[in-house]
Amino acid sequence: MFRKIIVPVDISTLDKGVDIFRKAASLLDEGGKIVLLHVIEEVPSYLAIDVPADLIENAANEAQDKLAKLRGDTGVDAEIELRSGPPAREILACAREQDADLIIIASHRPDFSNYLLGSTADRVVRHAGCSVLVRR
Ligand code: ADP
Q1: Alpha carbon nearest to ligand 1 atom 8, residue
Q2: How many other CB atoms are found less than 10 A from the CB of residue 60?
Q3: Are strands 28-40 and 2-8 parallel, antiparallel or unpaired?
Q4: Which residue of 6, 35, 49, 101 has the smallest Cβ count within 10 Å?
Q5: Distance 99 CA to ligand 1 centre (A)
Q6: Domain total for the chain?
Q7: What is the CATH number of the domain that holds 106?
Q8: Cα(1) to centroid of ligand 1, in Å?
Q9: Alpha carbon of 63 to those of 3, 59, 87, 123: distances in Å?
């Protein structure tokens, strides 16, 4: 099946994270590795002056704790990686750097503006150099 799977988790929708993490575990080769990834979105520079200095650090700590809890609750081994920047760009960069052979991403609830895929999933599917599973 797959030897290195990237599971990008938006910590504001953790239930989706649990679902795609479990799916990853079911598709992983013996001896393979799962990377649980959260991308902290950067504050635009024109707003940065109003943002408390420790905001990014707090966001990173919160994400680390939530991913560690998700991993503990699920009982599946995984490496936790935090990056910052635009989510799609960083998910793609992580997959490249880790030489992943699969990205599992959650799709969002369809609505009028974006019928099948949200913007992050859409960009990842278009640009990934490895297979992408979009979980519905
Ligand atoms: P929507 O935000 O409308 O639900 P997206 O396509 O933006 O749809 O997001 C779908 C999936 O992309 C998420 O469930 C998650 O797997 C991944 N994702 C989005 N934002 C992030 C983020 N900041 N860090 C990690 N993964 C993310």
Answers
A1: 118
A2: 15
A3: parallel
A4: 49
A5: 21
A6: 1
A7: 3.40.50.620
A8: 24
A9: 25, 6, 14, 23
